[in-house]
């Protein structure tokens, strides 16, 4: 049984060479009973991989999927929910037309060899196009406002006022947490989380700092002197000032620690929300695929029912018992040669 840390190490050593891809592919096929865990780590490491190594992950997936097609299909099934976001991620992040052509060719191979159903192939092609559009959009945003020779374009005096008016942009509206998550998922899709990990994360959030009643009671019980500087004038001697200073230091430490815990909780909740949204999106894609697959097989069943009805009709027109059929007797030899 292979551990997740071992998988991370293996994927970390992956390169685009054929030997590296085939070696890792054989290793993964050997542990195909853990296909769900392997695919999860694959997707996570793909996102964090450097740009020049991302295509290697698709090479491995392609090799594993094609070999697995003949050995049970666990990887074929488990990779499917991940591939759409992976294709879009690779195409949008890698600025190389040859890599884009390679991704497109792999999708075409899966179609030609009927690795996946036409609806799944259509979804992958759509993800590819979305990745191209996103990359083009990012390139436009990153355009250098120069004339292409490293020098800024000369601004005509007559157009100065017009340019100034263009620069006066409205302040950007602060995005809500939901909008931030949707934007982040569009820019950098995350792998579909393993259900057990997602449940564990949500359970951990149930015991979060924001629900720590003991600390909140301690903070609420702090005397007003630690937060109201106007009361400093009521200090009568140095001892009272020293005691108040110690109290303020204690309150500061308590609040600082609690704030750090709350910030950590907020990050965890953001990540959990992102994982949930990614999981929902993956399930929506899977539902869409399954619905189309169901419709396809319903049509096939309907055709089979029609064929069965035709056979039943044809069977009714056939004689019930061939042995009891009234057939005219054959002529004798004498009758045949009689003149």
Automatic annotation (TrEMBL):
<dbReference type="Pfam" id="PF16566">
    <property type="entry name" value="CREPT"/>
</dbReference>
<dbReference type="InterPro" id="IPR006569">
    <property type="entry name" value="CID_dom"/>
</dbReference>
<feature type="compositionally biased region" description="Basic residues">
    <location>
        <begin position="165"/>
        <end position="175"/>
    </location>
</feature>
<feature type="domain" description="CID">
    <location>
        <begin position="1"/>
        <end position="132"/>
    </location>
</feature>
<dbReference type="InterPro" id="IPR008942">
    <property type="entry name" value="ENTH_VHS"/>
</dbReference>
<dbReference type="Pfam" id="PF04818">
    <property type="entry name" value="CID"/>
</dbReference>
<feature type="region of interest" description="Disordered">
    <location>
        <begin position="132"/>
        <end position="175"/>
    </location>
</feature>
<dbReference type="InterPro" id="IPR032337">
    <property type="entry name" value="RPRD1A/B_C"/>
</dbReference>
<dbReference type="GO" id="GO:0031124">
    <property type="term" value="P:mRNA 3'-end processing"/>
</dbReference>
<protein>
    <recommendedName>
        <fullName>CID domain-containing protein</fullName>
    </recommendedName>
</protein>
<feature type="coiled-coil region">
    <location>
        <begin position="280"/>
        <end position="317"/>
    </location>
</feature>
<dbReference type="GO" id="GO:0000993">
    <property type="term" value="F:RNA polymerase II complex binding"/>
</dbReference>
<keyword id="KW-0175">Coiled coil</keyword>
